[in-house]
Amino acid sequence: DLSGNLVGDEGAAALAASLPSGLRRLALKGVGIGGEGLLALVNGSRLAGVRSLNLGRNEIGTGGAECLASWPGASGLDVLEMNEAGLGNEGAAALAGSRYLAELRCLTLDGNDLGPDGVKCLADSPRLSGLRWLALSENPLGNAGAAALASSRTLGKLGALEVSQIEMGSDGARALIGAPILAGVRELVLSGNPIG
Questions:
Q1: Of the candidates 21, 76, 82, which has an alpha carbon nearest to the alpha carbon of residue 51?
Q2: Nearest Cα to 116, choosing from 85, 133, 92?
Q3: How many CB atoms lie within 10 A of CB 127?
Q4: Most buried pick, 32, 34, 95, 164, via CB within 10 A?
C-alpha cells in the first residue's frame, strides 16, 4: 500500500519495473499519478497478476480510463477503485466498454463527475454483468441517472449499491427502489439525497 506517498508519473515508471512478481493487491490512492503514470504501470509486465487495484484520488482522467480499459492485464481484476479520478462520462464509457473487465466484481467510481449518460453506459454494459458491488456516490446522476440504473438488465447480480449524494429526488428513488436490479441487494446506501 503506497497510498498517500508522492509517486508521480515519473515514479510510476520506476515502480512498474520494481513491483514484486505475484503481487495481488496494489493501492495507489492519492499518489499523484495521471494518465502517463497509469500507462507506465500497465506497460510494466509485473502488474499483470494484480486482482485489486486502487487508483482513487489521482487525476487519471478519460485518457487513463481508456488506457486501463484497453489493457489485457485488467482481465484479472476483481476490484477496481477509481474514486475522485477525473473520469467523467467518457471515462465511465471506456470502462463499461472494456472487454478486459468482465471478471470485475467491485467497482468504485465515487466523485468522478458522472452524469446520467455515464451511468447509463455502466448500467447497460454486458461486460459488467458480474458486478456485486457498485459505488457511484457523489456524482451528479440525478433522477435520470437513478432511472438509468433502475432500467439496467445487466446489473442483476449486485449485492451492494452506493448512491449517496447523487442529487436524486423522490422520482429517482421510487424508480430505483422498485427496480429488479435491487432484488439481490443487501446493502443500499441512499444518504444525502433530497428524496423528500
A1: 76
A2: 92
A3: 19
A4: 95
Contact 181, 155 (CB under 8 A): yes
Helix (H, G, I), strand (E, B) or coil at 182: helix
CA 143 to centroid of chain Cα atoms: 20
> 25 by DSSP, 3-state: which?
strand
Per-residue b/e over 138-162, b at no fewer than 16 CB within 10 Å? bbebbbbbbbbbbebebbeebebbb
Chain-centroid distance of CA 192 in Å reads: 20
pLDDT in tens, 49-85: 899 999 999 999 999 999 999 999 899 999 999 999 9
Half-sphere exposure of 88 (CA within 13 A, CB side): 9
What element of type H or E holds 187? strand 187-189
Decide if 60 contacts 82 (C-beta within 8 A): yes
One-letter identity of residue 34: G
Flag whether the pTM goes above 0.90. yes
